[in-house]
Write a structure and sequence with these properties.
By secondary structure, this protein is α+β, with helices and mostly antiparallel strands. The chain has five helices and four strands; from the N terminus they run H-H-H-H-H-E-E-E-E. The protein folds into two domains: about 45 residues, no CATH class; about 70 residues, no CATH class. Strands 1, 2, 3 and 4 form a four-stranded antiparallel beta sheet that branches. A hairpin with a 3-residue loop joins strand 3 and strand 4. Helix 1 packs antiparallel against helix 5 and helix 2 crosses helix 3. The longest helix is centred in the middle third of the chain and has 15 residues. The chain is globular. The chain starts with 10 loop residues before the first helix and ends with a strand. About 5% of the residues are buried.
């Protein structure tokens, strides 16, 4: 089978993929694109479903390792995706949502770990727990009445309450 000389790839999708590829290191491009296409082909978006939807070039452990341990600034990828969404949906309303959350820790050596009040009030958990506190800042995109998407989340470690 010989390669095609012309491209039947949609121009808009090609532009979006070029923006995404420019936002990440070259060593990560292949794996990220495989996972991205796999999640577009599935109806759920889970990594295991994405791997099953494509013909993977690597073992499944490599994809999980990439998501868990890939050391590159993910925020650049998020900014590229936000730029695409904002450019393609200029009429949509946007919101900034600020929320606080805690991540339970068993070691006081974790960065910014402290005993904090837990607002959840679960029956099997004390009111004050050892945890890290984070402020989540997210950008919400709303198109029409029924369609909305969280397009960026940034967790920021906080000291104190």
């Amino acid at each position: 089978m010989s390669p095609r000389t012309g491209s039947a790839f949609p121009t808009t999708l090609r532009t979006w993929l070029q923006e995404v590829v420019r936002s990440i290191p070259s060593r990560c491009v292949g794996t990220l694109l495989e996972l991205l296409f796999g999640t577009m082909l599935t109806d759920r978006g889970m990594i295991s479903q994405a791997i099953l939807a494509i013909a993977p070039r690597r073992g499944w452990q490599a994809y999980y390792w990439f998501v868990e341990h890939a050391h590159f600034p993910w925020i650049g990828l998020v900014h590229a995706l936000c730029d695409i969404v904002e450019r393609e949906f200029p009429e949509a309303r946007r919101f900034v949502i600020i929320d606080d959350t805690i991540i339970l820790r068993s070691s006081a050596k974790a960065p910014d770990a402290a005993v904090r009040f837990d607002h959840v009030k679960r029956a099997n958990r004390p009111q004050h727990v050892l945890c890290q506190g984070f402020r989540q800042v997210s950008r919400q995109l709303v198109i029409g009445r029924d369609l909305g998407a969280k397009i960026a989340v940034r967790a920021v470690a906080t000291a104190g309450g």
